[in-house]
Amino acid sequence: MAAHASAPKGLSDCREAWVTTLESLAAEDDRIVVVVNDSVGSSKLGGFQKKFPDRLVNVGIAEQCMVGVSAGLANGGRIPFVSAASCFLTGRSLEQIKADIVYAGFNVKLVGQSSGVAYGELGPTHHSIEDFAWLRLFNTLTVITPADAWETAEAVKWAAAHEGPVYLRLSRMPVPELNIENRVFRAGQAELVHAGSDVTIIACGTTVHLAASAAEALQAEGIGARVLNMATLNPLDETAVLAAARETGAIVTVEEASIRGGLGGAVAELTAANHAVPVERVGFPGFVPTGSVDWLFKEFGLSPEGIAAAARRAIGRARK
After folding, report:
1. CATH number for the domain running over 191-319
2. pLDDT for 4
């Protein structure tokens, strides 16, 4: 789970999928431009800059300006992709995202890089675990967090074609490809990863493959865990969540983010209002300490073992 300069065997760096797809789209559509905050390297955009030097704007370390520039470009008919570390993109320029992009309805694609706790040892200033809570409040902003490289590429294609603001949340940690046949990316719709009727595990981003591993372990115990990949947090697939509540009676949410206001918060709000069932939220409870990605994930239960334990707790609560 630790960050690597190149992905280990069997794992893929979603940032590679993002830039490869973006370059392909830009070759076909000269409206596509990129705006960055001195983050060409961390965004893997060196190749894009060489191929399209006049279509990459580097504003320096000035995130509020970066978002404002992107709004102007969109107003002029371009399709700007704004790429920056998600902790700075969403924290420092939240007002500009709110007023310049979402309220104005501009066609800007915000790409949060190295999200969650991917910066690990750099600590709470660089952890980006609040972005879901901030951004899902904007009902016209589509929020997507892909689970693997394939889904990343499909999400970038979808975002480029979609008319309206989008936030793509990407990680720097390599992840395995999900083993799902005949996949089709549909924004706003949950993807079934594993069937089950005893409990539902709803995960997103870097945690989906961990949820799938937990479901396999639970299956060996005779527990059928449904796993949903909730790549789109806004709009949330309410139909899938409520079906899970009715059909399995217990839910676990898993996210590399704060459980307050993020995926866990969204699912708890929806079920409490429409079909109340036990909801166990796996993620971060608030500020988390400095530490390696591996340690942070294990410490806060973001592991197959931790997720399986949460599933057992949810089932136990449902049976009381």
Report:
1. 3.40.50.920
2. 28
Which positions of the chain have pLDDT values less than 50? 1-7
3-state secondary structure of 135: helix
Alpha carbon separation from 129 to 72, 145, 152 (Å, rounded): 29, 13, 19
Q: Give residue 3's pLDDT.
A: 30
Contacts of 86 (CB under 8 A, 6+ apart): 112, 113, 114, 115, 128, 131, 169, 170
Cβ count within 10 A of residue 91: 15
Which sequence spans correspond to the domains of the chain? 14-169, 191-319
Q: What is the pLDDT of residue 173?
A: 87
Encoded tokens for 150: 């394939």
Strands 109-113, 56-58: pairing is unpaired
pLDDT at residue 9, as a whole number: 54
Whole-number Å distance between alpha carbons of 96 and 78:
18
Residue 255 to residues 73, 297, 303, Cα–Cα distance (Å): 33, 10, 11
271 vs 238: CA distance, rounded Å:
9
DSSP letter for each residue of 172-215: SS-BPPP--TT----TT--EEEE--SSEEEEE-GGGHHHHHHHH
Res 6: pLDDT: 39
Q: Which runs of E-coded beta strand occur in the chain?
A: 32-36, 56-58, 79-85, 109-113, 142-144, 166-169, 191-194, 199-203, 225-229, 232-234, 251-258, 279-284
Contact (CB, 8 A) for 153 and 21: yes
**Do the first three CATH levels of 14-169 and 191-319 match, i.e. the same topology?**
yes
Separation between Cα atoms, residue 191 and residue 208, nearest integer Å: 10
Q: Which CATH superfamily is domain 14-169 in?
A: Thiamin diphosphate (ThDP)-binding fold, Pyr/PP domains (3.40.50.970)
